[in-house]
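Problem: given the chain below (499 residues), write out its structure.
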Amino acid sequence: MSGSNIPANAVEATGGLAIEGRSIDYIPESERHAKLSSQGPFWFLGNFHFFTISIGFVGPTLGLSALWTTLAGALGIMFGTLFMAFHGSQGPEMGLPQMIQSRAQFGYRGVVLALMATMFVFVGFNVVNVSLIIDGLENVFGLDPIVVGGTVVAVGALLSIYGHDLMHKAFKWALMVTLPLYALVTIALMFGAGQGQAAADTSLGFNWVAFATQFAIAASYNISYAPYVSDYSRYLPKDTSRVKLITAVFLGASLSGAWMIGLGAWLAQQLKAADALVALDQVGSSLIPGLGHVLVLVSVAGFIPIIALNSYSAMLTLLTGVDSFRKISPTPRARVLSIVAISVVLLICVLSIQGSGIAILNTFLMLLLYFLVPWTAVNLVDYFFVRKGRYAIPHFFTPKGIYGAWQVRGIAAYLVGFVCMIPFFYIFNASAGEEVFVGPLARLLDGVDIAWLVGLLVSGLTYFILSRSIDLEHEQRVIDAITERGIVSIAHPCKGQEH
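Solution.
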C-alpha cells in the first residue's frame, strides 16, 4: 500500500479522533482490530429505536390486534435477519464492503444495477428517519423542522465521516443510555401507563392481508440491512468463526426488532398512537412529570448513529459506483466530499416531502423489499453455493479481471426475479386507506403479498442455473496464483490510512 504507514486502528492507539482511512479498499489482516463481541450489541441497537416502534403501528392501522401484530412482526424480523446475518459473515472472510463484493455477480460496471437499488435504500431510509424525527419533535416541542433536520443530518454526517471505530463506540453508548429507558416504557405500558381517559381499541382482530403485510414489512426491514452488514464486519479477523458471527448478528438484530415492533403494536392499540415519539412522551409523562421529554430527547440522540450508519454505507455505495466507471483513490477527502453531497441531497428530500411519516414508512419499506430481494438472492447463492467464498480479491478492482465489466448472469437473474415479482406486488397506503398498486396475482390472493418470496426463489434459482457455465477451475487457479504471490493486500490503491 502506498501512502502513510499509520495503522488503521490509530484511533484506539492514540485515544484521539481520526478520520477512517479505509473506504472501498481491502482491509489487510494486520488492520483487522474489531472484536466479534461488538457485533451483537451493534446490531441490537440497529433496531432498538423509535423507527422500529413505528413499524409496529402498521398492523393496527390495517385492523390487526397488538398480539397478532407482535407475532407477525417477530416472525418477519427473524426471517429477514437470516439474510442479513449470512451477509455479515462475508465481511471478515473478504475484508471488503458489501457492494464491492457484488462485482463478482454483476461485473465491475454491471454492479451499478445493484448500487442504484441499495443507494435508494440508504438515502430513502434516512429520508424517513429524519422525517420521523422532525414530525416527532415538532409535535412534542414545536421545534422548527428546518433547524431539526439540518442539525440531525449534520451530526450524522460528521459521525459517518470519522467512520467505523467512532460509529461502533457511538452505538455502544447509545445502547447503554436507551436500554434502561425502553425497558421502563415496556414495563410501564404493561401496567396501563399513559392510557389516561382513552380506551384501548377493542375492534382490532385478525385478517390474513394485514398479517401478511406486517410480516413482509418486518422482513423487508431487516433484509434491507443486508447491504450494510459487511461494511461493519470487515474489520473482524479473517479467521472469525462464521457460525458465531451469524449467530451474534441474528440474535442482536432479531431480539431488538421483535421487542420494538411489539412495543409499537401495544402503543397503537392501547394509546391509539400514530407517532412513536409522541407516544413515548405520553407514557413517560404519565410516570414522572418531565420524563416524557427526556425519553424523546434520548430517543433522538440514540437514533443519530443510525443516521450515520446510512450515510456511511451510502458513501461506500457512491464511491463504488464512481470507481466502476472512473478509477478513484479512496482517500479521506473522497469520503468527506461524498458524505457532504449525500447529506445535502438528503436534507433537500426531507424538506420537500409532504405527508405522514408512517405512511411514508409503510410504502417505502414495501418498495425497498422489492428492490433488494433479487440482489440478496443472487449474492448469497453465489457466495454460499456457487463460488463458496472463494474469490480473487484484486480482480474486484479491475474491469479486465476474471469477473469482467458486465456479468450477464447476475444482471439477468436480478431482472428476471424482479419482473416475476411485479404481478404479486401489493402496495398499500395505510394513512390514506387506499391501494397504491396491486398486481393481478396479488388481487387473486386477496392482497396477501408474497412478491418477496417469488423474488427470492426466482432470482436465486435463475442465478444458480446460469452459474453452471462459470469456469470455477480457472478462477481457482487465478486465486491460487494470487495467494502464492501474496498480492491480495494490494487489491486497491490507497493513498493513506488514518489522517
